[in-house]
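Lay summary. Proteins are chains of building blocks that fold into shapes, and those shapes determine what they do. In this project we predict the shape from the chain. Here is one chain we studied, written as its sequence of building blocks.
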Amino acid sequence: MKKLNNKINVQEQLQILETCIKNEIPLHLELEKKSYTYENLRYNNYVNGFARQGKAETIEDVIRFSDDIPAISFFSGAGGLDIGFDYAGFKNLASVEHNELFCNTLKFNNPEKIVIGPPDYHGDIKRKEEIAEILEKTIGIKTPFNGVFHGGPPCQPFSIASNQRFKKDDINFKRKGFDDVKNGDLVFEYLWLIDYFKPTAFLIENVPGIAELEDSYRIQDKLNNLAKEGYNIWGPQVLNAADFGVPQSRTRVFIIGIKNCNSFTFPQSNIFQSACFDVFDKPLENIENHQTRIHTAESILRYIQLDFGIRDKLGRVDRLNPYLPSKTVIAGGTKGGGRSHLHPYTPRTLSVRESARLQTFPDSYIFTGASARQFTQVGNAVPPLLAYKIAIQLKEAIKKCS
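And here is the predicted shape, written in a compact code that computers can read:
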């Protein structure tokens, strides 16, 4: 049950905000003077006294297996797929990632992990022949590889949300897809590596937009060639993470391939989507990555007027509805500041840790770098709980066909 015990009453809150605006006083200083923090602020429409039965599923709650099926991740990011596959019983031999910040997070959380990326390697999939040579020499993998490849090539060229950050007359507004010079062809470099090493199975993850572009037949042609080499292919299959225990609406497309095996099925969806209520009911004391943003009185004055699910148009942030899955956690631009949704009970944006909980990262998993870049890492990731449920199905299929 949520209570108003620690919240400022509406009249006093309004008085504080107006004083700050009138006298140009930073809000956090005025709150400190009165022995308050941002956590004492409230929405005008707070909704007091509601409760929820039961507890949402988390990655920490699932059964952790140790089957040691070899796996290599590509475009590893902060490790969402890695975590899910690890919990499902796969042994991560290496993670291939070209962004040094992501590599730092991967190494920080597992110092023994082999990360093929900066500063020791370039980690650039565009240089696929060199990546293949590194894997052969460093990891010692051979063709065919008796294990699994999994990865999600950068999705920005195919993402509606990414491109609609620009004005409609901006060249970036239209999804570039495979014409994107930097990222558009990386899915084909990944498919080249799959064809080269011929792993027992592979997974490709991306946004649904990759299957909607006019020239998506190029991917299908590559998949058809793999099918001729003995792979059974499932997908493209669109899944919403909220249907599989993740307290966030996040739609992604998955493609699965298994050599000489026809036993795979995608995980069964839950009867109901997962609400984000429990994410905001968990304590946050002594938790890493929970630094919250210092908002102005002007921003708070706008936020407090919002009802559940309503957007602040100026800041382009939404107050989350705890009875529903969270809206998709956003990565933000690679050069600008990361941003998040508004907390359902306190008129402020979410911390990195709260966003990571919406993505089902374990609380013990730490994100390195500046706060804005931590948001980028969290928002780019595949939810570990969804990855886990797909990996379990993949593992069962491999066992059945071995």
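What the prediction tells us: Residues 384-401 form the longest helix (18 residues).
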